[in-house]
Amino acid sequence: MCFEIMDEDFRFRYHHPLPNFYKVSNPANPKTQIDNSVLKDLERLAAENNCAGISYSKLSDDFRKEWNIDFDNVIIFKYLMSPEILEMDQSKLKCKLIDDEFQEIGRKMYGFADFLRKNEFSAELLNPLDDKISLRAIAMQSNDAVITRSNMCLFKEGLNIGFFMIHTSIENLPFKQENDMCWVGEFCKTCGKCIRKCPENAFDENELVLRKVCTAHREGCSQCMLVCPFYKKGYIKIKQKYDKRVAKKRG
Ligand code: SF4
Ligand code: SF4
């Protein structure tokens, strides 16, 4: 991990709880091994429902016990938050539109859980509004994301990724063993655009975001995201730029 995860007391302030849309019950004796073809079907279903990608986290025992989660296997469904909404000025309307999108995508998650339940796996949505669970810490355990200097969770699909998580009895998910994104921490050290752009001076003397000052989750500020090269140009282009810079330094 390249930057610390800050306390999340202020996350999701403007989101409403998701209603329960399950149509299928969990099996009494859930299976633990998934066939590749069923996993591919799940990935196809997610893609057809506007998911930008899927990651898989294997939780540490400590996390699972601390958060009282039944299974240590987590599937992360990622979606791209609409740039048209993120690029609006902060306002109540913007917060509402972000929540509308969250509700619409969240509803689909129950369909993914039902798909797994029909295939005899246990599957349960982790409540994204539960302050006792750090979804971002779970995301970090996927080895498929990093926390940026602006305290955002960066996946390769983009900086404007929202995500939902399902924990499941499936033991043989394709968990990544190593994180190849930690170079982002070095890149961020040479950038700092988010800190300079912040209208609230929400970064402390150690350049960590003060969640109580940041207005992202109360008023919908996205300034640090909008100015970030990872948002503007995408992960792959910035990685290429970084690699060139490193190669030049090495001569
Ligand atoms: S969301 Fe806005 S207030 Fe919060 S750190 Fe980013 S720029 Fe600053
Ligand atoms: S604006 Fe720069 S320093 Fe801030 S998160 Fe993005 S790359 Fe890192």
UniProtKB/TrEMBL annotation:
Source superkingdom: Archaea
Cross-referenced InterPro entries: 4Fe4S_Fe-S-bd, 4Fe4S_Fe_S_CS
Signal peptide positions on this chain: none
All copies of domain 4Fe-4S ferredoxin-type, residue ranges: 179-208
GO molecular function: oxidoreductase activity
Gene3D superfamilies reported in the protein's UniProt record: 3.30.70.20
Name of the protein in its database record: Ferredoxin
